[in-house]
Amino acid sequence: MADNLRELMDCIIRKLGLMNTEFYYCDRELSVVQGYILQEISRLGEPSMHQVADKLCLGEVTFGRHVKSLIEKGLVRKDVLREDRRVNILSLTAAGKQAESQIAAHTNECIGRIFSQFTEFEKDTVIRSLRLLDRAISVPCCQKRE
Q: Quick check: is 3 in a domain?
């Protein structure tokens, strides 16, 4: 069963495009990780670098490189928190908001296409199963690596 399960998971990951290393939004090349960073900054408002890195389970060095690239692409701003100069706050620029909006729209469209093939019962079953999978992998898989 383990080999078949691994094969199934690998196939799902490939079909979802999670192994793709880059894509284009707003005429800018972005890695999948950079897309996730934009989404998390949008979700969290104006989070600290530490908050986003923790949420995405990324090490400081790796995360810092991605943020630097997003700043250079004009998608993210990094400002020092006045109350604590050790903390850097991230926010999306207008171009960053546009890119994140395009990513969200594309993701929602893909999810909608996938789930449109299911009955309501099947949708509920898949969602419950995904929540179970998420809970099961949350702790062991969220280990920082450089």
A: no
At 2-14, the pLDDT tens digits run: 568 778 877 777 7
Q: What is the CATH number of the domain that holds 101?
A: 1.10.10.10
Place of tokens 């078949």: 4
Report CA-CA distances (Å) from 88 to 21, 30, 84, 113, 130.
27, 22, 9, 38, 33
pTM of the full predicted structure?
A: 0.79
Q: In this structure, is residue 50 part of a structural domain?
A: yes
Which three-class secondary structure string do you get for 40-64? Answer: HHHHHCCCEHHHHHHHCCCCHHHHH
pLDDT top residue among 132 and 1: 132
Our count of domains for the chain comes to 1
Strands 22-25 and 28-31: antiparallel
Angle between helices 32-44 and 94-115 (to 10 degrees): 100
